Amino acid sequence: MFLRVTLACALVASLAVFAVAGPQETSDQKTLSSEKVQSSEPAKMIVRGEKIGDSPVVSLADIMKQPKKYENKTVVLEGTVDAVCQKKGCWMVILPGDNETSVRVTFKDYGFFVPKDARGFKVRAEGKLHFTTLSKEEADHLEEDGAKLVRDADGMVSEIGFVASGVELYKFPEKE
Questions:
Q1: What is the structure's pLDDT at 100?
Q2: Is the CATH number 2.40.50.140 carried by domain 35-171?
């Protein structure tokens, strides 16, 4: 009985501490999501997932020319976040430079998310390219979350996707 009461008290105390403290965020994250950044400050960075390693940086244009060459190979993509899942931040769309070709990025093992307000951030993502076919229902769900998809005649979507193991997001200072 004493053990049960002690465990219950410990659980209540730990929940109270978590409720007061909440999830921790770095000063960079606070700056990105809640403040206007001064133009003299450097870019702020948010890191999600694993640290980006020394995988080769490959342009999306090169991938689109020879997609099979890069399938299941670990590479780094760079670009700008064009869209983010507005329910959880569980996917994002990256646009490279001036090219209109984009790629939808999901996150390894559903293990991390990106901020829902990350549109316009510069991004580096390390992971693997894959080919997938989304059912009509999956495509409907993604469109409800803000994705822009090109459907096949049957309502399904064939896409080149990217599963990121690590992501770096950069918000550059706003110009006055």
A1: 66
A2: yes
